[in-house]
Write a structure and sequence with these properties.
The complex is a heterodimer of chains A (821) and B (181). Chain A is of the alpha+beta class. Helices cover 27% and strands 24% of the residues of chain A. Chain A is built from 20 helices and 34 strands. In chain A, the strands form 9 sheets. In chain A, strands 3-5-1-12-9-10-11 form a 7-stranded mixed beta sheet, with helices on both faces. In chain A, strands 32-8-13-14-15-7-34 form a 7-stranded mixed beta sheet. In chain A, a hairpin with a 5-residue loop joins strand 16 and strand 17. In chain A, helix 17 packs across helix 18. The longest helix of chain A has 28 residues. The N and C termini of chain A lie far apart (57 Å). In chain B, strands 2-1-5-3-4 form a 5-stranded mixed beta sheet, with helices on both faces. Chain B contains 5 helices and 5 strands, in the order ββαβββαααα. Chain B starts with 12 loop residues before the first strand and ends with a helix. Chain B is α+β, with helices and mostly antiparallel strands. In chain B, helix 2 packs across helix 5. In chain B, a hairpin with a 2-residue loop joins strand 3 and strand 4. The chains are: A alpha+beta (821), B alpha+beta (181). Chains A and B meet through helix 1, helix 3 and helix 17 of A and helix 2, helix 3, helix 4 and helix 5 of B.
């Protein structure tokens, strides 16, 4: 972006293009759809957390009046999984159930009531197996295996990377801080429960409407599981009633309704109950973390050794990526010359964890930002200044070979410090009140696709005709974030029309070009760039036709506010629709395409593809709290957040994304948790979900929500459409540690785990009164058999981005020497 | 599980309702909730469901002017009632001030909680034309929204109240002027 340009559409607060249907109730979500002769499906779920299925008798269910079909695991021999390396789940479990809620059979009937009644007539004989409830138990009991495809025991993924000799860096540091943290798991709790409607077409083809964030990945998995040609399957992603990552995984029921519709030749629908959504889960991984961090006496980081242990639940899901994300983005926020991370994901007999807003990153941000607060306290430095002194710089490489482009984190910190009155508040508020600060960074789109290929990550098709209508097609999925509005805005700005003149057709694998999906904050950047290309190409045709008609040079043609005209000559002008007529006359039927592929990451070592992004967003957050020392109750009167967004395409929506992220982060900080309990031994000792309902799963209501002051920091990023970076995930990340740091400022106790509940505050205050370490958090990190790390020399030390075998040996030798001396 | 359950030979229930000002008669399985009858039998799918247990507020509609969670109400109990749903909020093509304000202030993101929030807010403004910000938060505390963080919802309701009041004042002034002239 060179000279500042005045935009007609971009940067202006507008009603979103799909807003009217949302406020009138006209928008159709998946469960709002109904087709003639439609049947309904319900699933039978395992009551055991871990068992073998010895027999299933469906005869009585099949004979029940109104029942059309009963399916079981034997109908689905092919497993699925969104990651190519973790295809470990069956739509219906054939012989082995791994968590309470694992689906084992399906009934299709004339209505939901009949299907539910028939479920009770299915007899399943289970043989219970030992139950593994935590990663520690999974490590301790490797012989009770949940899956047999992994290398050893219940270790699902084991990943280690070292960028520079971290032990050496720690040895040379003035101080080394070692801290343990725990982040509890939680659920997306999208208000819409997952629903799918499948219809067989006359010639054996399939159409499925589903609440999915990733229709393309679902499409691929349907072809695999149903053993059909992908060309015969059409996936239509309905507008999602919220996703937050919970509708990224293909879900078992999507395959089962599809199969049932194909077998019966009638439409079949399922909508999960809220309880079932908690079983399907794919939410935030519970993660235990150990940080060993070296600092200079001035408070600069020298090196960090991060170890994480993830509770993956019963299936792979996005687990391989989640495991990486508990480490890889850590060096983006502050300068970190050397970095080592070891991450391990364990299988347990609980609903599978997966991607939730921030995917794997909130956990280490929580740990690092609290540890920085402890470092500042020890070194007697201001926590905001400590951070400001070591923010990463624009156009640099991290030790882990991530390329940072634009970066306004310093400005973000300054804005929240000024806005919150930090300098007058930190350490100076009366007892019981405090402020805390934290920062973060996030990807604007994952640089590499989930499955290996060299094709574009997104495509956009544009069609214009003599009526003046503009229709834009893209596989991107509206999950509420406003992706349709971004698409319309980019096209409208480029063609000089309003968003009202642009019709968006999105999320339909049958008619829209492929987009990988609404995940990793990728849509604005990737779809936006593809739309920019397609619209730019259409603009060239319009300009050529207009120049010819108006008899001026193409360079002088301007498209703005529905007019096409020659700059400086008011007489040479026509409407946009007229211009399209001339263009259609000159070129024939008008259509253009655009696509986008992210740049190649600079790292060349194996797995260097996880973490790179065309652009990173940055956020800083100050939270103020009031803690009642008698009850432990935490009140949050206000939150200040600054987000480096590049450019806000529609400020109303951008603000909404930031506040929504803060809300979700605050819920995770204070109350949200997906937790389990064991039934007493006389009641089978099974591991069951503690709270599968919205009443028991605590979330923040309108009464609990504080005022949020939002500062959008706009420094357009050259890799992004009109400079716009992500905003959907980043602002959530600093909230949880900022709350924890504010609690410390208020009452002098450290809560090193979320949620930060009144009970934990009281426990820590009690320890404080007894003169003990006033801290609540994990006190033990188990002995995890991490693998030997991939060793890569950082860019600052002359590395070339490849794995360095020699360096490993060298490093091992020096370590051995050091140990010997 | 010895006895094979027999489907009860049930007859449909039959009621009359006034839905968004229109008289309707509807016949449905007697176990159905008002929510199910609205969505499944009257094809008014604007009203949503998020929990089936009265925990989330997505299914809020107005029954005889009062906000009610339609997932907790059996439809047969509603015979003769006047029901207002999201489909009836706009006056033809013209959005209700609440709908317009939600569009202008980002009060709706994914939109799934929006119908329940709008109907609850309408009941509030019908009863209390000048609610404080705190009062708006209190009235909407039974409506869970997962996207907005509520701030833009409260902004929207506040702005709608202002617009409704201004319109009312303007109309009153205009009427007084006409009466005076």
């Amino acid at each position: 972006m060179n000279a500042p340009k005045k935009f007609d559409v971009i940067g202006h607060a507008r009603r979103r293009v799909d807003g009217r249907d949302k406020v009138t109730g006209a928008l159709r979500y998946a469960d709002d759809l109904k087709l003639p002769r439609m049947l309904h499906m319900k699933l039978l779920r395992s009551p055991h957390p871990h068992a073998l299925i010895e027999a299933i008798d469906v005869a009585r269910a099949q004979a029940y009046p109104g029942v059309h079909l009963v399916l079981t695991g034997k109908d689905f021999p092919v497993p699925f999984g969104i990651m190519p390396v973790a295809q470990d789940e069956h739509p219906l479990a054939p012989e082995h159930v791994r968590y309470v809620g694992d689906p084992v059979a399906a009934v299709v009937a004339k209505d939901e009531q009949t299907a539910s009644e028939a479920l009770a007539l299915i007899d399943v004989k289970y043989k219970a197996l030992p139950t593994i409830s935590t990663p520690e138990e999974a490590l301790a009991q490797p012989e009770a295996r949940i899956h047999d495809y992994t290398d050893a025991g219940n270790i699902h993924r084991n990943q280690s990377f070292e960028f520079g000799d971290v032990e050496e860096a720690l040895e040379k540091s003035d101080h080394v801080f070692e801290d343990l943290f725990f982040y509890e798991g939680d659920n997306h709790m999208a208000m819409e429960q997952h629903a799918s409607l499948a219809r067989a077409e006359g010639d054996g083809k399939l159409t499925i409407w589903s609440s999915t964030q990733d229709p393309h990945y679902l499409h691929r998995q349907l072809a695999r599981v149903l053993q059909m040609s992908a060309a015969h399957i059409r996936v239509i992603a309905c507008d999602n009633g919220g996703g937050f990552g919970g509708k990224c995984d293909p879900a078992g029921h999507e395959f089962v309704v599809s199969k049932a519709a194909l077998m019966l030749g009638r439409p079949v629908k399922i909508c999960l109950t809220r309880e079932e959504v908690f079983y399907l889960h794919r939410g935030r991984h519970p993660v235990l973390m150990k940080f060993r961090t070296g600092v200079t006496k001035e408070g600069k980081l020298t090196g960090m050794h991060l170890q994480t242990l993830l509770d993956g639940g019963a299936y792979g899901s996005h687990g391989p990526a989640s495991t990486f994300y508990t480490g890889v983005l850590t060096p983006l926020t502050y300068e970190l010359p050397r970095f080592k991370f070891e991450a391990c994901r364990m299988f347990t007999n609980k609903p599978a964890c997966g991607p939730k807003r921030g995917h794997g990153t909130p956990q280490p941000r929580f740990g690092q930002e609290i540890q920085l607060d402890k470092i500042a306290e020890k070194l007697k430095l201001d926590p905001a200044q400590l951070r400001l002194n070591m923010v990463t710089k624009p156009n640099t490489l991290t030790a882990s070979w991530l390329k940072i482009g634009s970066n306004s984190l310093a400005e973000c910190i300054r804005q929240v410090v000024d806005g919150s009155g930090w300098k007058q508040k930190h350490g100076k508020l009366p007892q019981g009140r405090g402020v805390g600060i934290a920062c973060s960074s996030y990807m604007t789109g994952a640089g590499v696709s989930i499955y290996w290929n060299k094709m574009p990550h997104t495509g956009v098709q544009l069609s214009l005709d003599r009526s003046g209508q503009v229709t834009v097609f893209c596989g991107a999925t509206e999950v509420g974030q406003g992706s349709d509005d971004v698409l319309a805005a980019v096209v409208a700005e480029t063609l000089g029309i309003t968003t009202r003149e642009v019709r968006c057709i999105t999320g339909d694998t049958g008619i829209t070009p492929i987009d990988l999906g609404s995940y990793s904050s990728r849509v604005t950047l990737m779809m936006g760039n593809a739309a920019l290309q397609a619209a730019g190409r259409a603009r060239e045709m319009l300009v050529a036709a207009a120049a010819e008609q108006l008899e001026v040079l193409p360079e002088s043609i301007v498209l703005s506010q529905g007019r096409v005209f020659a700059a400086g000559d008011a007489n040479k002008s026509m409407s946009f629709a007229e211009c399209v007529v001339y263009a259609e006359t000159k070129f024939g039927t008008l259509g253009t395409v655009g696509s986008y592929t992210p740049p190649k990451p600079p790292g060349k070592f194996k797995a260097a593809g996880v973490g790179p992004s065309p652009a990173y967003s940055f956020s800083a957050c100050v939270v103020e709290v009031e803690v009642d020392e008698h009850t432990g109750w935490i009140t949050v009167p206000k939150i200040w957040v600054a987000h480096d967004i590049g450019r806000a395409l529609n400020p109303t929506l951008a603000h909404g994304q930031v506040i929504g992220g803060i809300y979700m982060g605050l819920g995770e900080a204070l109350m949200e948790e997906q937790v389990f309990r064991r039934l007493p031994p006389k009641l089978s000792n099974a591991l069951v979900h503690k709270i599968p309902s919205l009443l028991e799963y605590k979330s923040i209501t309108s009464l609990d929500m504080p005022d949020v002051e939002v500062y959008l920091v706009e420094d357009p990023d050259p890799n992004c459409p009109f400079g716009a970076k992500e905003v959907g995930q980043g602002p959530l990340l600093p909230v949880m540690p900022a709350v924890a740091n504010a609690v410390f400022d208020a009452v002098g106790v450290r809560i090193d785990e979320v949620p930060i509940t009144p009970e934990k505050i009281l426990r820590a205050l009690h320890l404080k009164r007894e003169g003990k370490n006033p801290r609540v958090g994990p006190d033990h990190f188990p002995d995890v058999p991490y693998v030997e790390p991939t060793y890569v020399i950082p860019p600052g030390e002359g590395g070339d981005g490849t794995e360095s075998k020699m360096a490993v040996r060298k490093s091992a030798n020096t370590r051995a020497e050091r140990a010997a001396s | 599980m010895n006895a094979v359950a027999k489907p009860t030979a049930q007859r449909n229930a039959h009621i009359r309702l006034r839905v968004n000002g229109e008289e309707v008669e509807v016949s449905f399985a007697p176990y159905k909730t008002l929510l199910e009858v609205l969505r499944e039998d009257l094809d008014l799918t604007g009203t949503k469901h998020g929990c089936e247990l009265g925990e989330c507020g997505a299914c809020a509609v107005l029954v005889d002017g009062e906000p009610l969670l339609s997932c907790l109400k059996l439809a047969i109990e509603c015979d003769g009632s006047a029901i207002e749903t999201i489909e009836g909020l706009a006056a033809g093509a013209e959005l209700h001030p609440l709908q317009a304000a939600f569009s202008d202030h980002g009060g709706s993101q994914c939109g799934y909680c929006t119908p329940g929030v709008l109907m609850t807010a309408k009941a509030l403004l019908d009863a209390e034309p000048n609610p404080s910000r705190e009062r708006i938060k209190e009235a909407l505390s039974g409506n869970l929204c997962r996207c907005t963080g509520y701030q833009q919802i409260v902004d929207s309701v506040e702005d709608a109240a202002r617009i409704i009041n201004e319109t009312t004042i303007n109309e009153t002034t205009a009427n007084q002027k006409r009466a005076g002239a």
